[in-house]
Write a structure and sequence with these properties.
The chain is an alpha+beta fold and 220 residues long. It contains 9 helices and 7 strands, in the order H-E-E-H-H-H-E-E-H-E-E-H-H-E-H-H. Helix 6 runs parallel beside helix 7. 35% of the residues are buried.
């Protein structure tokens, strides 16, 4: 037909998309694969991390940490959080998955002057799991959502670099506080599972695997 004579055959277009995806997407060999079919299984993940799965499963099924997550949301809202990720570095707020230079600038400023800027919100670490030296003068408090693609992007890039440069060296500590968005079906269950891992001392290990396997989070 005349209207189709300048269009590429659909098979060629599909092939191009598949090839492009194969070039760009490089899954990490380091990711664990505790899955049932193609969906992440929270209990199997707990098992791979050496957790007591009976205790973990009971914790998840009873929604033991539902109120704790609600408190994180309330504290985040009070601090001005209305989207994820939102990061506070001694009161200096960074919204979104920003470039590392912005994180680095805020951290360096806080190292030089740990005082909270006048009028700034500075959410506490609450009783959440602390990564790094809890007595460090600089705190990196992240409000995030395990299903949020921007949170995953920040986890892989800016947050990973901040861990290496400042948390692992004892200059700062990091805390992840839950802010599951209502339109992300998997965010609340994932947050509750991470908190259940926390009570067995494996919060950050579980947290990291949730983000590494974000595409496999079960939609409940």
């Amino acid at each position: 037909m005349e209207q189709n004579k300048n269009l590429l055959p659909i098979s060629i277009i599909i092939a191009a998309i598949v090839i492009a995806g194969a070039i760009i997407y490089k899954p990490s060999a380091e990711k664990t694969q505790p899955v049932v079919g193609s969906v992440l299984d929270y209990v199997e993940l707990a098992k791979t991390l050496g957790l007591d799965t009976v205790k973990f499963k009971t914790c998840v099924q009873t929604h033991k940490y539902k109120d704790e997550i609600a408190k994180d949301e309330k504290d985040g809202g009070a601090a001005g959080v209305n989207g994820t990720p939102s990061t506070f570095i001694n009161g200096r707020m960074i919204e979104g998955a920003d470039v590392y230079a912005k994180y680095k600038s805020a951290i360096e400023a806080a190292l030089k002057n740990p005082a909270i800027p006048d009028g700034a919100s500075n959410p506490s670490k609450d009783d959440d799991a602390v990564l790094g030296n809890p007595n460090a003068s600089v705190g990196i408090i992240i409000f995030g959502d395990y299903q949020c693609p921007f949170c995953e992007r920040a986890f892989q890039a800016s947050e990973a670099q901040a861990r290496k440069d400042y948390v692992d060296t004892g200059k700062a500590y990091m805390v992840f506080r839950d802010f599951p968005l209502s339109f992300h079906q998997a965010a609340q269950p994932a947050a509750e599972a991470a908190e259940c891992a926390h009570e067995q001392g494996k919060y950050w290990e579980y947290h990291d695997e949730l983000f590494k396997n974000q595409a496999r989070l079960p939609l409940q």
